[in-house]
Amino acid sequence: MSTTHLPLDEYVVVDLSAGIAGAYCTKVLADGGAEVVKIEPPEGDPLRGWSASGASVEPGSDGALFTHLACSKRSVVVDPDNEADLETLNGVLARADVVVWSRESRFAARPGFGPEAIRSAHPHLVVTAITPFGLEGPWNDRAATEFTLQAWSGGIVGLGRGAPDRAPVHVGGRIGEWFAGAYAAAGTLTALRRRADSAQGDLIDLSMLETQIQGLTYHPVTFLELRERPFRSERSVFVPGVSQASDGMVAVGVATAQQWFDLCVLVGHPEWIDRDNPLAITETAAKVAPEIYEWIRARTVDEVCEQATAFRIPNSPVANGANVTGMPHHDERGSFIKNPSKGFSQPGHPYRMSAFALPQPDNAPTLGEHTDAYRTQASQAGDRSTAEGGARGDASALPFEGVRVLDMTAFWAGPSCTHVLAMLGAEVIHLESTSRPDGTRMIAGVPMTEELWWEKSPIFSGLNTNKKSVTINIQTEQGQELLRELVKTCDVLVENYTPRVLDQIGMDYDSVRELRPDIIMVRMPGFGLDGPWRDKAAFAYVIEDAAGLTWLTGHPDQNPVEPYSIGDPNAGVHALLGLLIALEHRRKTGEGTLVEASMIDAALNVTAEQVVEHSAYGNLLTRDGNRGPTAAPQNLYQAAGVDEFGRDDRWVAIAVETDEQWLSLRSALGSPDWAMDPALLTAQGRRQQHDLIDEHVALWCRELDDDDIVERLWSVDVPVGKVMQPHRQAELPQLQSRGFFAQVEHSVNGTASHSTLPLTFSAGRGEFTVRAAPLLGEHNAEILSGLGLSDRDIARLEHDKIIGQTLSF
């Protein structure tokens, strides 16, 4: 294992952000070895005094979440109102490589310190701007919070989450901020990769609205346009879902007909099985739910999990900040470490490398601890862009051009990782077989009697644009030999099978490295390559259950509900981060590595606040419907009128984060007597009277159309959002202006809107072309002939059903 360097140790990152997204982005970079300089005003970053549970943070001390996110960083105090200090900041920027920026920072409003101005003054810099809607477009300066963005994205309705007789529920834990931070880190590392060749900086414009679309919804616009119906139009509680066992909460999920049949046998009711009508499963499950819940209540969490696992039914204890660190699997794998400054528990790295060890976190800095040292450096700094000698290569080349990726992934998590690579220039070869295609080809509701039905999945189409398809039956000796020859030509291999699949055919990392010594192999097991849950079925919702994402989602008087979304794409972007760090290592050393990027470790990292709060203060964060820790009031309120399905089910999201926003909301409401109470002028007072505020705001909203509410509140800078049906995303003017959806023509499906990436580089989205997802085996001849096979060889392989272009179950 290499210990002579850290992959990112040549980079200096200046953090000009405020909030979780920027802090998590720069934490990822610091954990990879970058020198991260946190620029703070004299009063310090607001996170220093923050506790989601309301724990008291003494003056001069730091909150636990800040201490977790700021590990290994430096702190430099700069007064944004002092011109001499701003000159110091410019000196720090001159010797940096990256700036991470958000508009909430006090520095954002200073002339010369917007993202475009910084890049203009320091053209060598990669400037990563994290904003609610993006830097451009008609909504670029509209008021928003993570909660209202969930509404605009369609993520609150999501994949039909929640009971139809209650208000929809957002995904708790400010997950949109954490996910945006991970994506911002990926965009930053991608831009640094191109800068290494061209010596030119970049401006990354990340839209949190667009990241939430990628993380909380499942290509709903593509589905609507190709199938002429929404993917899911009604909310429901999945059965069994989260249930009460005799000693705690447990989640049991059925995602396939076979899993439902197995559950029926498990609970002693095989007569519930109707193999001739699998579409009746949902109706049957709703009817028999009380009996299933009774069966679960009679058993402990461990008993339910053990028996469900024996039947290969997805399951997990429902984790929260109090119990997750003690779960045997996390304990055996060392998933949690001690904070070096204060000793509370926090998650370890979301990925593990075989060739080198990522550093353990160092202490978080005290406020201004490194100011003097950086002032001295700044006074001596030269012009970095001049020192580097200008451009060395083609700045117009896509970042991953020349990289060949073997994509042995399926469903959502793995393909979402390789999709980014494909969109940005890599040659991504998606490996399937005619008997075991990517499972998303089946998620379309297309009758098998239709011609080429497997080519008509909007989900497969959305996740696999710009890729190539090769089919190889790797269960055969011939197929395995072909696979080995293909691996020799690849720079990267990404797979998300259960661990035993590749192990059984001799394709573990050591075997792959013998074929291609410098290969980077990214393995994405659900629960890791070791530990007691190694072979547990790992659908997205199980990962959400096991990490705490489920615990914070739902109404407080009911069992939590699974987000049913973020577990997969969150795993995908963290696997991408691990790969990008590994590529930096290989660029420096020529050495490949195994990247173990388990879904659970990725999820534990974005739910860190629960563990941090409980272990530092003894406070258990829990779900609170649509309220949240940063805004008061924050909630969903029902608007007048019916939705597109004729239901009385139109909602708006409102979140007041500042006292000024409260005054604006109060004015928009007509300054009624109840709202003039002086106690409501503070966040604490509003939180104490949240029920009263909700009652009156709900009455006001109920008389108005949702568009009218948005217009009235946005006009006075109050964060507000319509709870969109996700399939209506393409109608949003902001997304239209930014070109987030591309029109893609498919030879079987025709033309439809496809989402691109939730960020742009300096050249914008016109920098890359979006090509249709491949037909099954479409590139067999191209790829296999490149391995030296003749036309006759390829024809023989097709005759022997080693390869093919037609499904053969």
UniProtKB/TrEMBL annotation:
Query: Per UniProt, which keywords does this protein have?
Result: Transferase
As one GO molecular function, the record gives: transferase activity
A Pfam family this protein belongs to?
CoA_transf_3
Q: Which InterPro entries match?
A: CoA-transferase_III_domain, CoA-Trfase_fam_III, CoA-Trfase_III_dom3_sf, CoA-Trfase_III_dom_1_sf
Q: Please indicate if the UniProt record lists DNA damage as a keyword.
A: no
Protein name per the record? CoA transferase
State the organism of origin: Gordonia hankookensis
